[in-house]
Amino acid sequence: MSKIALVGFGYWGKNHFKTLKKLKDEGIIEKITVCDLNKNALRNLEKEDEIEICYDWKKLLTSDIDLVSIVSPTPLHYEMAKEFMLRGKDVLVEKPLAMNANECDELIEISEKAGSGLMVGHIFRFHPGVVELRNMIRKGDFGNILNIFIRRQTLRVPRKDMGVLLALGIHEVDIACFLLNEELPETIYADINSYFGNAEEMALIIQKFKNTTAYFYESWIDPSKGKFRELTLIGTNGTASLNFSEPDRITIHQSYLERKQEENFSVVNGGDFIVRLEYSEPLYNELKHFIEESNNKKNYHSNGYVGKRAVELIEKALLSNKQQTFIEVKN
């Protein structure tokens, strides 16, 4: 069994810890080590049986751990992932993989040369609803996909290390590629606004694929729907909507426009129904996949190339806003 280190015990790191404990209870993990430089954050863990504590991540480089889950602040991702992989550790790095595409390239190269696994925490690739939508698209259930809409909003204090594009939009640009069988958009554009700091608090993103256009709305300053995350997918034969907070169901709308003649259409009202899914926690699915694939062929669903592509798309989105034009996306 694997011995894993969790580096970073902030808000999201605590969620990782709860999930890793569950995997340990199931016998999938042998040992968990938690590392954070904030001793107060780890104080309660000192009472946990069979949990090792560390305050300096560099001490883990020569330890007996096999796997590392890096949930540290994004500016630290590159250095940490690099050092762990150089010492033969397989790493899961929370998204974004790094602060820029050049750092992503270097991490991929190190991973391949060292033979160390590199996975990126694009958690929505492990969301039951997103996975089921991808399967339905591949089966042709919605016909040709015309549009993908994703709306993610809340009211919160903006982050200081990055704006909504790199913090939230990176989810959406990857979800669209994932749903469309890893297709790369042809162009991308973003309109962003910064009202309270240097980084953007609101963004509208457009990705144009060969036959599909995706629209994303990201905001840290919009309380109109509370904490709201929803995806709508429109096809020529139907529409689907998914509330990300309800991973056990998808609403299908079997209504669409039907072409009668060259310029004549009629509305087909097929009614609505709900597809029920077996509930599973996306973070649990992600971490279990990381552990199992690290012990196998390391064919991660969200490998370094997936992580790099997402960062590149956000870089191009930022450039498009600066130049006020759509930016071409090249392979």
Automatic annotation (TrEMBL):
Residue ranges of domain Gfo/Idh/MocA-like oxidoreductase N-terminal in the record: 3-122
Higher taxonomy: Archaea, Promethearchaeati, Candidatus Heimdallarchaeota, Candidatus Heimdallarchaeia (ex Rinke et al. 2021) (nom. nud.), Candidatus Heimdallarchaeales
GO molecular function, one term: nucleotide binding
Species whose genome carries this gene: Candidatus Heimdallarchaeum endolithica
Ranges for domain GFO/IDH/MocA-like oxidoreductase: 131-240
Protein name listed in UniProt: Gfo/Idh/MocA family oxidoreductase
Name of one Pfam family that matches: GFO_IDH_MocA_C3
